Fold this sequence. Notes:
By secondary structure, this protein is mostly beta strands. 0% of the residues lie in helices and 44% in strands. Strands 17, 29, 34, 35, 37, 38 and 41 form a 7-stranded antiparallel beta sheet that branches. Strands 18, 19, 22, 23, 25, 26 and 28 form a 7-stranded antiparallel beta sheet that branches. The protein has a 6-stranded antiparallel β-barrel with strand order 5-8-9-12-13-16. The radius of gyration is 35 Å and the shape is elongated.
Amino acid sequence: xxxxxxxxxxxxxxxxxxxxxxxxxxxxxxxxxxxxxxxxxxxxxxxxxxxxxxxxxxxxxxxxxxxxxxxxxxxxxxxxxxxxxxxxxxxxxxxxxxxxxxxxxxxxxxxxxxxxxxxxxxxxxxxxxxxxxxxxxxxxxxxxxxxxxxxxxxxxxxxxxxxxxxxxxxxxxxxxxxxxxxxxxxxxxxxxxxxxxxxxxxxxxxxxxxxxxxxxxxxxxxxxxxxxxxxxxxxxxxxxxxxxxxxxxxxxxxxxxxxxxxxxxxxxxxxxxxxxxxxxxxxxxxxxxxxxxxxxxxxxxxxxxxxxxxxxxxxxxxxxxxxxxxxxxxxxxxxxxxxxxxxxxxxxxxxxxxxxxxxxxxxxxxxxxxxxxxxxxxxxxxxxxxxxxxxxxxxxxxxxxxxxxxxxxxxxxxxxxxxxxxxxxxxxxxxxxxxxxxxxxxxxxxxxxxxxxxxxxxxxxxxxxxxxxxxxxxxxxxxxxxxxxxxxxxxxxxxxxxxxxxxxxxxxxxxxxxxxxxxxxxxxxxxxxxxxxxxxxxxxxxxxxxxxxxxxxxxxxxxxxxxxxxxxxxxxxxxxxxxxxxxxxxxxxxxxxxxxxxxxxxxxxxxxxxxxxxxxxxxxxxxxxxxxxxxxxxxxxxxxxxxxxxxxxxxxxxxxxxxxxxxxxxxxxxxxxxxxxxxxxxxxxxxxxxxxxxxxxxxxxxxxxxxxxxxxxxxxxxxxxxxxxxxxxxxxxxxxxxxxxxxxxxxxxxxxxxxxxxxxxxxxxxxxxxxxxxxxxxxxxxxxxxxxxxxxxxxxxxxxxxxxxxxxxxxxxxxxxxxxxxxxxxxxxxxxxxxxxxxxxxxxxxxxxxxxxxxxxxxxxxxxxxxxxxxxxxxxxxxxxxxxxxxxxxxxxxxxxxxxxxxxxxxxxxxxxxxxxxxxxxxxxxxxxxxxxxxxxxxxxxxxxxxxxxxxxxxxxxxxxxxxxxxxxxxxxxxxxxxxxxxxxxxxxxxxxxxxxxxxxxxxxxxxxxxxxxxxxxxxxxxxxxxxxxxxxxxxxxxxxxxxxxxxxxxxxxxxxxxxxxxxxx
Length: 1066
C-alpha cells in the first residue's frame, strides 16, 4: 500500500515465501521499506542522519521438528589429561623419581599428562601415535634396564628425557574409530605391541605392558582436569552453514553497529496433558488360570476367554509346562473403558507364583475383528503407551493371535487397549522411559521406547545389550514441550530429558542412546541442538541421510549418538532440518551474526562472529582451550605470544592478522564497512614458523616477525621479517635476520614471543624479542629495523630472563617497551629506545623464593634466618623463575605529563617469605606513574616506599626498592586474582582497563574499569553473564586496538569462527 504523509511516502512490499498467502504458516516476511521524500517536505539542514534509501527487515518462523546432549570435549594434542583405571578408579601417577604407578585415586599434578601427537597437531584420533608427557617433563616410556642389565620389555616409567620409539604409544578405542573424547575408555599399545595394564588383580598398583589383550585390566578412562566453571559456561553457538561470503559488499539487511540487539534466550515450556483412567463400570470380570490354553495346542483351548482376550501358556525349550510348579497362575481380568472412549482389559498380577521357576511365560492372545494392522497400548501413568504391534499378515479375522505382550511378571494391575493402527490416541506430554522397552539388540518395540519423536535405547556393547540395572542406567523422565525465543522468534517442538532415576548398580557397560524419528523419505540433514542453561543453543550432532553412520531402524528412528546415561542435569533438545541456524544472536549476513552482550555503569560490550571460509575451516586461537593456564600454574609464568593483530586500512575496512593453530599459515581477515561479512587472505603460506609480532605502517603495509619452529640450533634459528601489502596480500619484501651469536643470538623459540611498533615517518620499526640463546640462557633483545631494507640498525639486551613483553610508539617517535624480568632486572623494566639511544627504569620489583638447601660451594651456604620458619629453612641464594606478576598489554600508557605502567601483582610485593608456588596471594591490578625521562628514574604517583632485596644465584645481595605503587582492586583471596590485564587509551584522560578474574587455575569472569591520566577512576564493572553463553576471554598478551574511541579485540571460537569484541566506555 502506498500512502503520503506530510513528510514521507512509504511503499511497503510484503513477500511471502510459501506456496500462497493462504499457507498455514508464514515461512518468512521480507519488508521492503522505501523512504521517499514527499512533495514539499522540508529538507534537513544539519545533524542529518546518514542517507538510507532502502531498509530490509526480516522475520523468520520455521516450523520443523526439533531435540540433544553436549558432546564430551575432543582431546587435542597439547591437552592435559588424566588416566583412570576403569576397573578400580585409581589413576596413573608419576612420582618425582620417574616411577609410574596406579595406587591412588588422586587427581592432582602428579596425575597430569600432556598428550602430544607424534605427527601433526589437532584432534587425537583413535589409532593415533601419541606421547604422554608427565608433569616432570619426561615422557611415559615402555622398556627399562634394571640393575641386572637385561632389558625388561614390560616396565613402564617416566625416567628419561627421550622422545623415541619407546615413548610412542598407540591410543585406541576398542572397535571404534573417530576422535578421542573425555570420558572415553581407551587402550595404550606400546612399541612391543603389548597393551599397558594397570592395577591388575595380580599386581595391585603396578603399571606395566605385558600382553596384547584389550580387556578389563588394560582399560583406561581418559579424563580432563575439572575446571571451575564460569557463571554460565557453554560452547560457542555455531554460525550458519551456508556459503561463506567471498566479497565484502555492505549488506543492506545488517543492523547499524550501534543497533546490535541483546541476546534473546531460549526457554522451554513443558506440555501438559490430562491423565487417562480405566473404568470397569459395566464391564465383565473373570479369573483365568493361564494354564488351560498353551502354545503347544493346535487349537487353543478357549474355556478361559473374556470377550476378545485369552491368556496362553508360552513354550519353554520346546514344551509347555502348564503346571503350578513352573507357572505363575490365576489372573483376575476385567473389561472396561479407558477415558470412556477405548475398550480395554485390565489384568491383575498372578495370585499364584511358580513353585519352582517360570518355564515359559503367560502371553495375551487377542481376537481381532478384521485383517489389518493393530497397535497394543498399555495405560501407564495416565497415558496410553504403545507396547506392541500386530501386522495384518499375522491376523486372521475372528481368531486369537499372538500379541507379544506377557503378563506373568506383572507387579501391579495394568490396562491394555487393542486398536487399529490408524486410530489416534491422546499423546502423553511426558513419560518415564526405562530404556529397556527397546534395545539396540531388539528394536521391534521402538514406539514403546519413545515419546513423540524421541526414543531411548539401551546400547549394544561387546555384542550384547546389558539390561537389568546392574550394568545399565534406567528410568529417564522425558517431557515434550515447546521452545520459544532465539533471534528468529516463534516456537518449535522440543524435549527435556532428565538424568536416570535408577543409575547402574555397578557401571554403565551399556550406554543409553537417544534416537530420533526422521521423516520418510529422509532427504535433508537434521541438526541436533541443545539449549544451555544460559538460554543459548549449541549444535551437538548432525544426522545425514544415506550414510553408514546413520542407519534407520524400525519406526524410522536414527541414533543421534547422544548418551543420556551421562546426564547429570536435565537437558533440552530440539531438531532442525536443512541447516537452519538456532541462535540467540542476530543474523547479520549468511556468515555472520552479532549481539549486544552486556552493559551498565557506562560500559557496553558487543560482539560479532564471522564464520571463516575454507574446508577444513581455518582454526584461530581459542583462549579458553589453547592456552588456559591460571595464575597458579607453572606454564602461566612463561606466557604465550600475541595471537591477534587488529588494524584499519585506508579504505576504512578493519582487519586482523592471525595464525592458523593447525596449519601455521598466517591470514589477514578484512571486514566489510558495515561489518556484516568478512574475507580472508593468506599473507604467509609457510608452515615453518611461529607468528610472534605484527606492526602496521599506517600506509597499508604490515610487517610480520616469524620465528622458526625447528629444533634448537647453535648456528641460529631462522627468524624472518616479511612485509606485505594490506590491500592485495602481496609480499613486498622478506629478510632472514642474523641469529648467530654475532647477531641476535636466537637458538630456539621462546614462548613470550615479541612486540613491534612501526614509526612510518622515520621509516623504522622497533622490536623486542624473547629468545633462547646458544649459551643456554633466555632473555629479550630489542632492535630497530630499517622499514625499507629490513636491515638491523641497532640492537641491545633488555631483560634476562624475560617472560612477557609489550611495546608502544611514543609521541616523540621513540619506542617504549616493557619486559617482565626474573633477574636482570627482577621486576618490570621500562625501556625507551630508538636507533641511536636507549634508557631504562625498573619502577616495580618483585619478591624472591630462596633456596631450601645450601650451595655445594661458594657463597649461599648461610641460613636466611629472616624468612626461615620451623617448616622451611631458606638459604642465602636463589634461582627463582617465578615473578608473581603479569604485565598489562600494552601496559604502558603515555599521558601529557608522564607514563602510566599497569600490571597485576601480589601484595606485599617484596615479602620474600610469602612464596612457595606460582601464586601465593591474590593478584590485584596496580599502576605506577613515572616521568617520561627514564634516565631520571622519576616516580610521579603518590605512595609509600617499599624496600627489600634478594640473594642472587651467586649468593650476593641485590637490593630492591620501589615507590608510588597504587592498587585499583582489592581481591584478598587466591580464589580471585586479576589476570590478562589490558589497557586502551580511548581519548585524553580516558584509559580503559580490561582484566579477567581467575581462580588459581580457572577463569571466573571479566571486569572493565575507566581511569584518568593519574590512574584514578570508577569502580570495576563486572560483565553480567546471565545471558552470555560464551565468556569474554582474550589471549593473555594481546593488545586492545582503539578505533573511533572504542576498544576492539579479537579471538577465535570453535568451528572456524572469528569473534570481534567491542568495548565502549562512556
